[in-house]
Amino acid sequence: MPGWGGRPSDGGPETMSNTFENTWVDARTQGVKGGRFRCVHQGTVVLYERGHGADADVTSAEPFDFYDVHIPLAGDGAVTMNRKGLFSALGVGGPEQRGSTGRNRGGVKRILIIPRAAVDAALTVRLGEPPYEALSFEPVLDNTAAPVQGWLELVGQLADFADSGLAARSPLATGHFEQLLVNGLLDVQPHTLSEAVAGRGTAAVPRAVRRARDFCSEHAHEAISAADMARAAGVSVRSLREGFRRYLDTTPSAYLRGVRLGLVRRDLLAADDGRAGHNVTDVALRWGFTHLGRFTGHYRAAYGETPSQTLRTVRGSD
Question: Edge-to-edge strand order for the sheet containing 36-42?
Fold first, then answer.
């Protein structure tokens, strides 16, 4: 394949087309002689350098099916993403996007290509499930931010690492280096799943656990069990228990009990307006609590008062 293995090429349109089919292709170039194309590293991720001997416009032949980070080393150039101009040549594109860049004579860029599969794999580890759609990064990297600066230095270290020959001798070390780059980009550059990756969003809870929670809410009035919850979630009871323990710090049965306690409290608080004009025992039995002593203990632990106190407070406020 022309231009690979660290060998410079003449940088012409054929090289770009043959090497990166359906990716970045010279669309309008003038006088590219003296240009430069060098593959620095080829593995799960690809790092290459591209320079021009003349001013050039470069555009993608088709929407991306990968992520690419453009890092200017010399010179500059206008960058557009989905026909929208960016204020910096230091940027990142992703799947379903179409980009173009203007490159000045003598300009050199380092370009990091990350397959979508590599990003999805990293997200799956962090979220506990595959992402439901392609992640989209903010298009411009802020090189004044220390975390971004650190990540850019890491890209430079990959180039040094590849040139040293150690990468070829240690595939395991190379794989770790590539994972560090992918996960580092997820951490330093804002994107559509930033909250979930940081553990602050509901998407961080696996889909099976969310399905089980929804099933509890929708069927709390029925005689359901952990086995029914697991069946609705499409996993084994053991897997569901592990998911609840890891992500919700509880068990499926305890979660269901909490949902039903909430419904008991709702009915007790509604007793004063005629919507649930029954005593504590009636309400408890309605929601499946047959051992009133244990029920009262669970209720007090959840709400800091007994069910009778809740009911007296409501009726005393009339």
Answer: 36-42, 46-51, 108-115, 66-74, 91-93
Report pLDDT for 270. Answer: 82
Compute CA distances 280 → 261, 287, 311, whole Å.
12, 11, 8
Could you give the CA distance from residue 92 to residue 83 in angstroms, rounded to a whole number?
Answer: 14
- Tens of pLDDT, residue by residue over 19-40, are 344 444 343 333 445 567 889 9
State the Cα–Cα distance between residues 12 and 259, nearest whole angstrom.
Answer: 65
Q: Locate tokens 């230091």: which residue?
A: 90
Percentage helix, strand, coil for the chain under 3-state DSSP, each rounded to 5: 45, 20, 35
- Residues near 295 by beta carbon (within 8 Å), at least 6 away in sequence: 284, 289, 307
Rounded CA-CA distance 213/251 in Å is 11
- The pairs formed by 85-91 with CB atoms below 8 angstroms and a separation of 24 or more are 86/139, 86/140, 87/140, 88/140, 88/141, 88/143, 90/140, 90/141, 90/143, 91/139, 91/140, 91/141
Tokens 């990756």 belong to residue:
197
C-beta of residue 180 within 8 angstroms of C-beta of residue 112 = no
pLDDT for the residue 115: 94
Summarised one tens digit per residue, pLDDT across range 50-61 is 876 655 555 555
For the chain, list residues with pLDDT below 50: 1-32, 87, 201, 203-204, 276
Establish how many alpha carbons lie within 13 A of residue 11's alpha carbon, considering only the half-sphere containing its beta carbon: 26
CA distance readout (Å), 227 to 193, 230, 231, 291: 31, 5, 6, 22
Instruction: Identify the burial level of 179 via C-beta atoms within 10 angstroms of its C-beta, where 0-12 means exposed, 13-18 middle and 19 or more buried.
Output: middle
**CB–CB of 37/8 below 8 Å?**
yes
Answer for the pair 74, 110: CB distance below 8 angstroms, yes or no. no
Q: Could you give the residue ranges of the DSSP H alpha helices within 141-206? A: 146-164, 166-169, 171-188, 194-197
Q: Which residue has the tokens 């709400």?
A: 303
